[in-house]
User: What shape does this take?
Amino acid sequence: MNAQNILTDIPALIRNRRRTSDDGLFLHHAALNEIDDRLGMVNRTFNSPAIVTGFPQVWAASRPDAVIVPDGETLELNQTAHDLVVHAMGLHWANDPVGQIIQSRRALAPDGLFLSVSFGGQTLHELRACLGQAESQVTGGLSPRIAPMAELRDIGGLLQRAGLALPVADSVTLKTEYKDIWHLMRDLRAMGETNAMQSRLRHPTRRAVFDAAAALYQDNFATDAGRITATFELIFLAGWAPADSQPKPLRPGSAQQRLADALATDEKPLRD
Assistant: This one.
């Protein structure tokens, strides 16, 4: 991979994740509940699941029978060995998200299910805006502070690029409240989600930047009770390893009935 395209400083990400606390992993539990709901809608029993995650303390307990592997650049999964692969809360930090999905797809047996959950582009948009404006005002510059997370309309296409069939992408938006920006950033440390970007500043940020950001946050994103709000968007992806038994689209021109007949309406020619 070209060094210019590297988003994440992996050693820094690992260090950040080592600082997590149980209280800070509440979003993982919310994501886990959503994954369980989606699996409950699939009329199938999975006998050889695998979970890709940097947070085994949460996800391993959800499926004691699952193979648990870290979300490193190379996934330690055997090809065609699993009927379910869940990529849990790490795709937003991946330097090669398509590669992560491709490796997961290769680990699936035919007609196996891939599911992922990660943070989406609306996550922490309030903090991103306030820090950017504050830093520009105080220092006259702008540095990378919050990872650029993919939008739902963009990330859904990764499933087809990775060779998965019947792709589905959707999102869930969660709103949280904090006393102030300092409590929010403390929670981000407890989540293991502080800045691990390769291009981040390598020296401490001036206190004046955070003070200005705190004031902007309070002015623009405060509740009636004086607390601040923070948005977390969870993006869910689902796709199936190709199999002959799956439904396939009809060939163009192979329809047995006209659309106008099916809709019980008159067909009118287009005007030139």
